[in-house]
Specification:
single chain, 251 residues, alpha/beta, Spore Coat Polysaccharide Biosynthesis Protein SpsA, Chain A, two-stranded antiparallel sheet, 9 strands
């Protein structure tokens, strides 16, 4: 049997710098729709799941009709801050062998990048790889294209050994003494770790609105490489360069 691959999108309505950001519109669709849609476009994804909590503040996500054809929801009823527990709960419920770990503030996540990483984890199974990513520990791609792919068993083992709560696969990557990990580096022409394509602040939102109007209206599967090439030639579109990004340790 082929391993089942499930994209798990961690999503909540709370955000200190931009509350409710996951439902803000980009090119006529909510941010969360873009994340789910672009994950769904990946060839190797079997199911897309939005993993959230029982906090009543998250109810608007369930009422978003655009999302129903694209994904399932999974509600975690325990500690709202136990992000890794929420991911394991969703993975167990949907019987995921492989988790594609995506955050809800990365609407530009590229389906081709997802497929490349899933394929790498599957193909290198004989090397006992536990985890692959494109940017989590050693960033080379722009911030906002982050994808982590790992075996569900590795996440469960990480929880058992270290009992983390914040983040999910990032905890696996930070224990290379236990887990075998691989990072896919951007080729030199795409290397731009300082560029922010994630949605953290109002400045990010204003910039992403312009980019999604330009690239997303006619092609929801537009490539991240196309955007990077465009911004290298048209740097006046980069209006969020002074935004300070949180470190993973800040939550």
């Amino acid at each position: 049997m082929y391993p089942k691959v499930v994209a798990i999108i961690q999503a909540r309505m709370s955000s200190t710098r931009l509350p409710g950001k996951v439902l803000l519109p980009l090119a006529g669709k909510p941010v969360l729709w873009w994340v789910a849609k672009r994950a769904d476009l990946a060839e190797y994804i079997d199911e897309v799941v939005v993993a959230t909590t029982s906090n009543p503040a998250n109810r608007p996500m369930f009422e978003c009709e655009d999302l129903w054809p694209l994904c399932y929801y999974h509600t975690y009823y325990k500690d709202e801050n136990d992000v890794i527990g929420r991911a394991i709960s969703a993975a167990n419920y949907f019987r995921a062998d492989i988790i594609v770990d995506i955050t809800a503030d990365c609407p530009m996540v590229d389906p081709r990048h997802i497929d490349k990483l899933v394929k790498k984890l599957k193909m290198l199974k004989d090397q006992n790889l536990d985890y692959v990513s494109n940017d989590i520990v050693s960033r080379s791609w722009p911030d906002g294209l982050d994808i982590q792919v790992y075996w569900t068993d590795a996440l469960i083992k990480c929880k058992r050994l270290f009992n983390p709560q914040q983040h999910c696969g990032w905890n696996i990557a930070n224990h290379p003494e236990v887990f075998k990990i691989h990072h896919w580096q951007a080729r030199p022409s795409m290397r731009w770790p300082e560029l922010g394509l994630t949605l953290d602040t109002p400045k990010d939102y204003e910039m992403l609105k312009v980019l999604f109007d330009k690239f997303g209206k006619d092609d929801p599967g537009f490539s991240a490489e196309t955007v990077i090439k465009f911004l290298k030639k048209n740097r006046e579109y980069i209006t969020n360069s002074d935004v300070r990004r949180k470190t993973p340790e800040e939550g």
